[in-house]
Design brief:
By secondary structure, the chain is an all-alpha fold. Helix content is about 55%, strand content about 0%. The two termini are about 30 Å apart.
Length: about 230
């Protein structure tokens, strides 16, 4: 059954309405990629071959349109989190997923800022992005904390805000392509129960220990947007 922008059951759309809806999503995705999430909605409607009134009937707010555009990416991130929830190294799994979140938030200019500003606003249409991601990440965080490799006082809300902040900082520093990775490394040092961890690749994984008592460490935690 079709869903309204508020997440409640909606009446099935007529064929012409479905075509308009699909064209609007396609053109919005292109416009956001080219101009950022503050792209002109009038231009989106024009490129989709409909009036601005039609756009607003489908998407009452800019955030509603953004939420619809990004649902595919959100679904991919949630699917990846479920796969990582079965990983042998919970901390490495959390690290990989946070990297994917940073990548996703940095794909469209303005997205990280929007996600940060609505992180705790359940009335925003972007809650359809924020809420399921927060729930998915909470599973990975709890599992990593249960091994003793991530501090127990770390919260998923803090992590989501940090990852969006990292993506925003990287967005504002396009001449420094390594900035996001360096900032994520600093974040991971703060997560670790071993504060002297020297690098992102050296964050302890889980309760596995060497004969000397030191925990083993993950390698290659970086994730691509697709979760490869």
């Amino acid at each position: 059954m079709a869903m309204s922008t508020a997440g409640t059951p909606a009446r099935p759309m007529r064929a012409d309405a479905r075509r308009n809806y699909g064209r609007l999503l396609t053109e919005a995705r292109t416009a956001f990629a080219e101009h950022g999430t503050d792209a002109s909605l009038e231009d989106v409607a024009r490129r989709a071959g409909v009036g601005i009134g039609t756009l607003y009937r489908h998407f009452p707010t800019r955030h509603a349109l953004m939420s619809a555009v990004f649902q595919e990416a959100v679904t991919s991130l949630i699917t990846r989190s479920r796969e990582l929830a079965e990983a042998e190294r919970p901390c490495a799994a959390l690290v990989e997923w946070l990297g994917a979140i940073v990548t996703h938030a940095g794909e469209y200019r303005g997205l990280a800022q929007a996600l940060m500003s609505t992180c705790h606003d359940e009335s925003s249409a972007l809650a359809r992005c924020n809420t399921p991601l927060r729930e998915a990440g909470s599973v990975l965080l709890t599992r990593a904390q249960s091994t003793g490799s991530v501090r127990p006082d770390v919260s998923i809300d803090d992590l989501m805000q940090l990852t969006n902040a990292i993506a925003l900082a990287a967005e504002q520093s396009p001449d420094d392509p390594q900035l996001a990775d360096r900032l994520l490394t600093l974040t991971l040092r703060g997560l670790s129960t071993h504060p002297d961890a020297p690098s992102r690749a050296s964050i302890p994984t889980d309760a596995e220990s060497t004969p000397g008592g030191a925990e083993s460490t993950p390698t290659g935690a970086k994730s691509s947007p697709s979760g490869d």
